[in-house]
């Protein structure tokens, strides 16, 4: 692989503009604040959800999942890719969801070609193909938060780290599937049509969250829905359309901030503040330097007396 995958945030604006940059049309993400079927239904056409949770490291592998059943036939018949790298599970979950809803969703030329190329591979090779896709990796990385201190491509988790994982849930062929690249196959949670999804998904998520202590609240749930501006235009909801357009502008602004490293700016700002203070004090600069030299000299003399040699 020609490059690494950086960490991106679980954020509706990040996910929405990421898939738009990949060529997906008329789809957006909305953060869900409660496990409420009515809230999901209020969003209109829903293609699935992306769930973020703390991954239980150290668990022994099992022949069957804790909830639902493995559908090994679906591992080859659906687009199911094994997760082969760190930091890309969010994008992988999103792409798995969308590629399995092609027909309902316009996934665009690039993802359609990717699906046609990788679709006949076994899950492990699909995962390798996804992780080696320059287009998908570069698009993903363009939404990573800029940092001058951490090379995310070299970071590996330790046993003491909190590790978080993304998975997708969607209705495919009238079955509710859990798509988790760390599992050996898609997990079936029973019959579910797209129109039933908002009610069938809630108990599945409730059972999953119930596995954790009551004090654990670090979960995030994103709904993948039809662009809410389309419905607002169709029903003539001018206020709703304006709200959605304002939200898009806010997302654009936040995404632009993520791409910038502000350390240099802050450094120049501090230098400007110091310069202004010194100029206001006349010859304060020279005095400040001499005082600093004096304190350093005094500290070294005291250290020598105590037998400490400073480098």
From TrEMBL:
The record marks 180 as: Important for enzyme activity. The active site is at 89 (nucleophile), 165 (proton donor). Keywords: Hydrolase, Protease, Thiol protease, Ubl conjugation pathway. GO terms for biological process: protein deubiquitination; ubiquitin-dependent protein catabolic process. One of its GO terms (cellular component) is cytoplasm. Residues 4-226 form the UCH catalytic domain. It comes from the Eukaryota. Its EC number is 3.4.19.12. The keyword Protease applies. The record marks 83 as: Transition state stabilizer. GO terms for molecular function: cysteine-type deubiquitinase activity. Belongs to the peptidase C12 family. This is Ubiquitin carboxyl-terminal hydrolase. It comes from Neocucurbitaria cava. The lineage of its organism: Eukaryota, Fungi, Dikarya, Ascomycota, Pezizomycotina.
